[in-house]
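Hey, does this match?
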Amino acid sequence: MNAHPVPPELQKKILLADPSLRDGTFNKSVVLLAEHSPEEGAFGLILNHPSGQTVSDLLSDPDFLELWKLPVHLGGPIARDQLTFAAFWERDSQLGFATRISADEAKAYLNQPGTLVKAFAGYSGWSKDQLEDELEQQAWTITDPKINLLTRDHNGSLWKNLMRELSPYHRILADAPDEILAN
């Protein structure tokens, strides 16, 4: 018997970290959940944690000159020494994406109009049942990605802006000070 109820369809959803997740890695994170399987676990990328570096800081091969100016985001706590790329686009009012793409694939996506290419150091991953446990503990709020995600700033303000749009309750959480008891 499965200890967890069948989760809602999670793949291709956005996970918004609960304010209680303050460990640094997931603090106010917006995670694109690219892959999810109750049997295998989940894979995602944090969209709103810029590292302050660009691809040129990590990949000096002149074959990838077109990618050098891309900012590198911290995709999660796993394999931070590995650089990967993802592409995002809108078609038929749906957000589409390809994750774990190579530098050569990223270069090809750069030439497609309306496509956002991002670089990531590391990724977010959950083993079997781990994400379901965190959802039961209300560590994440699940939402659908909106098309305007492509045109928004993917920095610290993204979490707050997405939370504000969910409900009045989430707006209060978004606007609360980090150390609520310090006030």
